[in-house]
Amino acid sequence: MSVLDIAKGMGVTLGHLFKRPYTVSYPEQRVDIEPRFRGRHHLLRHPDTGLEKCIGCSLCAAACPAYAIYVEAAENDPDDPVSAGERYAKIYEINMLRCIFCGFCEEACPTGAVVLGHEFELADFRYQDFVYGKEDMLVGTTGSKWQRREAAAKGKEVRIGVEPAPRPELEGVDY
Ligand code: SF4
Ligand code: SF4
């Protein structure tokens, strides 16, 4: 190895000294997420009417390669509809332990109701806490089950460790 090779190697090292570090002090510091990242699902509402976009068609469940989604539909009451269709999802559950975050459910959905967001802190303790229902995913709900449990116990706001990147499908999702 020549002196020139050593100088080149040192040059690379020195070059990296002045670059922005990739590491962050998580969880105190929020993590930047790429827009294409797919994390916890959100169930969206129509922004104008507030009605749920999900019409309980189960196409997402049919497309799911991990059999992670369970949907049970019911007829809408015309005087007090839940969704904008004839039917709505009475039960909508995703088992996060089964989910491989492939995004097929999002692609299969004809109404754009289910969207994979940027939240990734889904670790928990009990099996049942990995099954997310509508109340855990409807737009307006921030954080995973344990984050909401912890925030409620401490009387604080839910704080997620991700700095969301812009993504049009997630408009209306409040992090
Ligand atoms: S992201 Fe993929 S694995 Fe997860 S619920 Fe959707 S279709 Fe199923
Ligand atoms: S999320 Fe979409 S695909 Fe799944 S049941 Fe609702 S409307 Fe159908």
Produce a short descriptive summary.
The protein is of the alpha+beta class.
Q: What is the spatial order of strands in the main beta sheet?
A: 3-4-6
Helix content: 10-25%
Under CATH at level 1, the class stands as Alpha Beta
Which topology does CATH recognise?
Alpha-Beta Plaits
Radius of gyration, in Å, reads: 21 Å
Classification by helices and strands: alpha+beta
Strands, count: 7
Following the backbone from N to C, one meets helices and strands in this order, namely HEEHEEHEEHHE
pLDDT < 50 stretches: none
Calculate the terminal CA-CA distance, rounded to whole Å. 53 Å
Q: What is the number of independent domains? A: 1
CATH architectural label: 2-Layer Sandwich
Percent strand equals 15-25%
* Bound heterogens, unique: iron/sulfur cluster
Q: Which whole number gives the mean pLDDT?
A: 93
Number of helices: 5
Shape: elongated
Major beta-sheet overview:
3 strands, antiparallel
Description:
This protein is α+β, with helices and mostly antiparallel strands. It has one domain: Alpha-Beta Plaits, CATH 3.30.70.3270. It has a three-stranded antiparallel beta sheet. The longest helix is centred in the N-terminal third of the chain and has 15 residues. It starts with a helix and ends in a 12-residue tail after the last strand. The model has no long low-confidence stretch (mean pLDDT 93). The site of one iron/sulfur cluster (SF4) has 15 residues, from helix 3. The site of one iron/sulfur cluster (SF4) has 14 residues, from helix 2.
